[in-house]
Amino acid sequence: MAKRGISTARAAVAGATLLALAACGTQQAAGSSEPDPTLIEDGVLSVCTSLPYEPFEFERDGKLVGFDVDLVNEVAAELDLEAKFVNEKFESIESGEALNEDRCDVAAAALSINGDRARVVDFSSPYFNATQVLVTLKTSQATDLAALAGGRLAVQDGTTGAVYAADHAPANTQIIKFSTKEDVDSAVSGSTVDAGIYDNNIVAEAIKANPGFQVVAEFDTGEQYGMAVKKDGDVDLLRVINNVLADLNESGRYEEILKEWFPESTSTS
């Protein structure tokens, strides 16, 4: 299947969300003292991420780059700090372990906001909307989850896709969990599974690397990404993050960053 870009309506931050954010940021600035985040290392904003997850966070020519990387660097710049990235397993980020054990100040890892995670970390306002897609080989006849009854479905452990599969795949579908997206790629390409579930925003990279892949279905899960901090640990850092996100949207800088990493996308603001 041809490269599938993020849909215009869903691709980036919902305009209304960030416009509300901008208003919120203005009110906070007017009605409260200057934020004073508590950091685990003086002069440094420690950032947990999970590599590679292109185009959000990955290495290129020996340098860490990506959409999340650019956004969190803007937060660090606002605080006049250096951003130091810590590569963690995604499971340790989404479970709250990495943040609550003070291995980093903030997590930026294409992390979907949901109730379970919100019980163990504190989320920023959302900065990106995402959907899930079902990927098969082009030789497959499967067109939806129902076709996988009795089959094998690959997911990345700890992700929204894994939760969606558990909730919606036929009861007799065997759900195989892998640690990384690349492991899911290998399982699908090697036909050890019948299909895989991916975030729509990274599936183009999987298809580029595996021309035999195709997207056969898309699931609108209503998920949004947010940055995260230690649970009940740093309200001031959340304030800074939210203000930076609002300022980026208001100035047009958010759109510039979005276009760099998702050329086919456009915000709805």
Give me the secondary-structure topology.
Blueprint lengths: L14 H17 L12 E6 L8 E3 L2 E3 L1 H12 L3 E6 L2 H5 L2 H4 L5 E2 L7 H4 L2 E3 L4 E10 L14 E5 L3 H9 L5 E5 L2 H9 L5 E5 H10 L3 E13 L2 E3 L4 H17 L1 H9 L8
Parallel strand pairs: 1-4, 1-5, 8-9, 8-10
Antiparallel strand pairs: 2-3, 5-12, 6-12, 7-10, 7-11
Helix pairs in contact: 1-9, 2-9
What can be said about the biggest beta sheet? 5 strands, mixed
Number of strands: 12
Instruction: Give the CATH class of the largest domain.
Output: Alpha Beta
The low-confidence runs, each spanning 5 or more residues with pLDDT under 50, are: 1-30
Beta-sheet strand percentage?
Answer: 15-25%
Classify the secondary structure makeup into a structural class: alpha/beta
Strand order of the largest sheet: 4-1-5-12-6
Q: Secondary-structure element order, as H and E?
A: HEEEHEHHEHEEEHEHEHEEHH
- The overall average pLDDT, rounded, is 88
CATH architecture of the largest domain: 3-Layer(aba) Sandwich
Number of helices: 10
CATH topology of the largest domain: D-Maltodextrin-Binding Protein, domain 2
Label the overall shape: elongated
Give helix % range: 25-40%
What is the total domain count?
2
Q: Calculate Rg over CA atoms.
A: 19 Å
Cα-to-Cα separation, first versus last residue:
30 Å
CATH superfamily of the largest domain: Periplasmic binding protein-like II
